[in-house]
Design brief:
Shape: globular
Number of helices: 4
Strand content: 35-45%
Largest sheet: 6 strands, mixed
Distance between the termini: 34 Å
Helix content: 25-40%
Number of strands: 6
Length: 142
């Protein structure tokens, strides 16, 4: 995961393997993985925060991020999560467009939230969406 995260977020400090090990051991963390990427959530029911969503650059725009988030929905719903929130760099227009497409709505803004290795800063856009409810048999309710 540290290798994927470093490749996906070259303009930010990548998270270390040790940080990922600690997160994986946390019972409040949900992890969805594929060889090309992963999504990591921390939950405090009824909410979860998308901590990071990383896809290797060579595999972007192939539906992997969408698939990771779709795979996470039933896991989160099964844990009593009804909504997910996230922060995304205001300059990351591709990620904002993806989250918009997946039903996230902009809920706020944090000035100078992200610090880059070169000392520059970027604002954060706050976004949130509801998790589709699950029926007892695991299927989504309409």
């Amino acid at each position: 995961m540290a290798r994927i995260h470093a490749a996906a977020f070259m303009s930010q400090r990548p998270w270390s393997a040790e940080e990922f090990h600690r997160l994986r051991d946390d019972p409040m963390v949900t992890l969805v993985t594929r060889p090309e990427g992963f999504a990591l959530f921390r939950s405090v029911p009824p909410e979860a925060e998308l901590l990071t969503l990383a896809v290797l650059p060579a595999h972007r725009r192939q539906g992997i991020a969408t698939a990771l988030l779709a795979e996470a929905d039933p896991l989160l719903a099964g844990a009593g999560i009804t909504s997910v929130f996230l922060e995304v760099a205001a300059g990351n227009t591709a990620a904002i467009a993806l989250y918009d497409k997946l039903g996230f709505q902009q809920t706020g803004h944090r000035a100078n939230y992200y610090r880059h290795p070169d000392g520059t800063r970027d604002d954060a856009v706050l976004m949130a969406r509801q998790i589709p409810a699950q029926s007892p048999n695991g299927l989504r309710k309409s």
